[in-house]
Design goal:
Helix content of chain B: 10-25%
Number of strands of chain B: 7
Oligomer: heterooctamer
Shape of chain A: globular
Largest sheet of chain A: 3 strands, parallel
Number of helices of chain B: 1
Order of helices and strands of chain A: EEEHEEHEHEHEHEHEHH
Strand order of the largest sheet of chain B: 2-1-7-4-5
Number of strands of chain A: 10
Largest sheet of chain B: 5 strands, mixed
Distance between the termini of chain B: 39 Å
Structural class of chain B: mainly beta
Largest interface: A-C, 83 and 83 residues
Chain lengths: 260, 66, 260, 260, 260, 66, 66, 66
């Protein structure tokens, strides 16, 4: 597949996957491998001061294989998100940040104002900012103008698995964007990912669609194939749709039988 | 003196550095990052950065997420 | 991908492709290779008695690689279809037949009565019958009871590229079938094929979706990947859908910032 | 609303309703009144020889207000359907018959072959035949050619409430039909009925969509309004769709404010 | 239909219509009458200092029949919108304002930040604010918290006629709202309006869907009926959907015929 | 003699007409229709139409349906 | 003196009121509203409100819109 | 004698076999199949199968199709 450039970075796979909700770190590793992803997201949280347990998430991610994309999930304000991003940079030595500033815990929709404010600040501080945002063409354009390296409109609510609820808005966002459009959140099955890519999305970011499948590793591979299929179909130029039929076999030179 | 570490109040001896604070909690140096009063403390500065009365310290790590 | 059994035959790919509408035999060969298909359809027509031209379609199909599925496209009656099938068997030395008895040239929808009558006759004559049929659960069940080796409901009119117009009927057909369900006709792009497979189709048969793409070989590969993706997703057990969000990152242990 | 001609009959309402599944005859009467329907369906069944109970269904239908459309629901063969139609004619003194020959009890999809055979016979006997059929343009055309007064393709399985599952097939059927197209079965809510009429259906026949609503009489009125709305919208010529916006207020002569 | 309360006002019709894009004032008046609307929108623009022409828009609106809802269409900033609203109040002696602060001229999507800022200011000044906004549950909730009397998420881009592109987001907005949800923009035909109301929208605001129809007055009536139908269906409690059939006629006591 | 009425075998006196059969079952004349051996018996013929040994009689009415 | 009326510069005599300005342009009093320098001028104040050099005046009406 | 080959009437010499007919039209033996009067003529029988007056012969091949 043609590689994707996000700011200064280039990744060979257009599928970005999360690290959340897996039954075990080993299952997560199997899914990461099956997905073919080269970028994985992680969250930033307080350590448990009373817990001395050994292995941490990072022990299960081979950073030679996977570029880490820390997120600001759970932040409700620009200020929280900015500090979380700064800590992530210090912790992971990366300027990549998946900016996520949510407005409420039921829908996990972004707070557009806080997201733009945080993006503006983080860009000034030299971050490569990938903001999670509603499928709102104006908000996406404003984030691009603030200097974000990509925009990540949602396909559907985080963890809903509803797929691309509004292909029109995603298509409008893509047609007007000068940065990569990464469909983030809501992908539930392989065809959802293919649809997103066929609309023109440059990549898809998902977590629950893989982690919550009955066989996560098999679904991870399905998602890998679907993203490639959708990308290829987008580049191939699909046939035009028509209401009526159009024979694929010739309609002349047919044999004749004797009417009884 | 008292400081707020990850949202909880702790009584601590005076003259503590952030590095010493991490040691107190047997927190590994690697795989964590620290902020004091909403500003990141670089790893290289942990040993110099004092913990003072009323400070708010955040010690974070990477966890699974989407 | 798990192989598909159709009557006595087993094929490794769940994508069956046509030979029609290609700009050249070489393009067709490239598409066949890219599709990974192991079965290709051909039509049966009168030779041109005045034409001495050399190469024929079969010269471009390596029968060691591709099993040939002759069709009865263009036939309007059971009698025409049966004789066409008999000629195909004589010509190609195969008992496989894609039974197609159409009702009119605009929609190319099948004539259900003639299709069932022809299927009944051909099964008696030892053919392995794959009938093209409407997305009609009763007609599909009747064809199965007549002894067809598979049923091939349409996704949309032949050559329309509309995709799976009625996922409910295809799902009902699959849930009740004891023979493979091959979605035939109407697939226009990769996600259409993935959707068909996710509903539970055992395979997809297409021609125009590939041949009429701007880059047919690239689309052929997209279709290959989409069929595999859809099959895997079907087997993987997708996540349940929900209207509201479900966080993929933990909602506790977030950092706090000092309210200004 | 413009009246609908079905064979020799003309009805003022394009909504035809059933008499089944109501909690009481009084609820049924309230729904019939609220629906504005002028034609109602009834089924034909054996009397209970041991039951001397008084009132029958017909006592609750004012035949001065409602034209009765008996059906052959439950018949699996042409022969059963023909005798049922003959009994209905004797009983109700009408040549109208909703021809329904089903193929199985789970999907209640029609048996196309038996339906066409029965239609052919009933037309010869002078019936005004309204056949329930799959959304199959060829079967619909064949029924028209057999002399049916209308064709009644299903929107979705009987009692499913899924609405118009395949608008493309219904549209094709309508564009090619020379008799009224009445969408029968599957309508679950008002917008389903409006969609069917906007596609061009000449009428809608429903039962469960009204009878199984929490407030059947209110839903009956909703269906009446929806059928009228859909019919009017179809006749009004809807605006063209476009992906991008088109201002409804002028974009010039706006006031200016002083930039701070 | 049950009346709708918007702040201190109550309107008997849940259809609000525009005054734009009509071929003549007389056609507009006919459409207003046919729509049954009690509230109509107007825009605010500079007078033409060189034009002495007589009649103005207001001469064609009977304010005893129609409550006027001025809009701030065309404004790109909160400051422009606020002054436009203040001028509208002075001009029309109403505190009602349809707040519209757009982000770009191609999509006419709202600028969420400017819209919220303007809403906050206008509420402080005692306006009854009805903001046009994206189908963004967080933005809608924030506007409610600012004191808006209703929220007006778009169904699709203004003037696109695409209908409710994302029923999920509208449903989420409605389920969480404590003020009326008025679906504004994008309705193209009657069933679109019915769908919006069935999801739970409290009203629908449209202009192009009526004005750009081939027969605007007929479409205006279609929209009136569709809004009523959708509202009634919503209140009636639709039947549950099911994949398989459910007979509406009894399956017992069928007649038997003698097998030949 | 025995006849099959609505799918059930009944022992009946000889020389019965369909009309008399309906009376036996206290079935109203109106609101019902009758078929004998797959052929409709017109209402006007009920009083003449004999019921004979082995006959299959169907007596039907209209019921609620869609 | 010069003022900007609906976005265009005009040379105007000194000591003009907004009401007089409307008369100059033969603009009806009803069906219009006026803002001066981003602030609405109430109808009751039109006759008193002066137009001064550099003022920005907006005179608006209702037009067809959605 | 006259026979109908692929829908067209041809005047042909008597006593012709299907094999000879194919040769006449320079039609290769492989890649084609033949039906006479709605019945397939097996390849092995082409040399024996006579073409007689009024026969309807279909000579077919495989072509591109879906």
């Amino acid at each position: 597949m043609d590689p994707l450039k996000i700011g200064p970075y280039e990744i060979g796979s257009r599928l970005i996957v999360g690290t959340g909700k897996y039954s075990s770190p080993e299952v997560m590793q199997a899914c990461h491998a099956a997905s073919g992803a080269e970028m994985v997201t992680v969250a930033i949280r307080r350590i448990n001061l009373d817990d001395r347990s050994g292995k941490t998430l990072l022990d299960y991610i081979d950073r030679a294989k996977y570029r880490i994309l820390p997120n600001t999930a759970g932040c409700y304000t620009a200020k929280e998100a900015v500090l979380t991003a700064q800590l992530a940079r210090e912790l992971l030595d990366t300027d990549l940040i998946k900016l996520e500033v949510i407005g409420d815990p039921q829908t996990l929709y972004p707070d557009t104002r806080e997201t733009i404010a945080a993006a503006s600040q983080l860009v000034k501080e030299g971050f490569t900012v990938l903001p999670y945002i509603a499928d709102d063409p104006v908000a996406c354009k404003q984030l691009e103008e603030e200097g974000c390296a990509a925009v990540m409109p949602l396909a559907a609510p985080i963890g809903s698995g509803l797929g691309v609820c509004n292909p029109y808005s995603i298509r409008i966002i893509k047609e007007r964007a000068n940065v990569p459009v990464i469909v983030d959140a809501g992908v539930g099955t392989a065809s959802d990912a293919a649809v997103a890519m066929e609309i023109g999305a440059d990549a898809v970011l998902m977590n629950t669609g893989i982690a919550a499948a009955a066989d996560p590793a098999a679904m991870a591979r399905a998602m890998k194939l679907a993203v490639e299929a959708g990308r290829l179909a987008y580049l191939s130029g699909r046939m035009p749709k028509r209401l009526y039929a159009n024979a694929s076999s010739p309609m002349q030179d047919l044999i004749a039988v004797h009417e009884p | 003196m008292r400081a707020c570490i990850n949202g909880k109040q702790y009584d601590l001896p005076d003259g503590l550095t952030v590095a010493e604070l991490l040691d107190r909690f047997e927190t590994p140096r690697t795989g964590v990052a620290v902020a004091k009063n909403d500003r990141v403390v670089r790893g290289s500065a942990l040993a110099q950065e004092p913990v003072e009365d009323g400070d708010r310290i955040e010690i974070i790590k990477a966890v699974a997420g989407g």
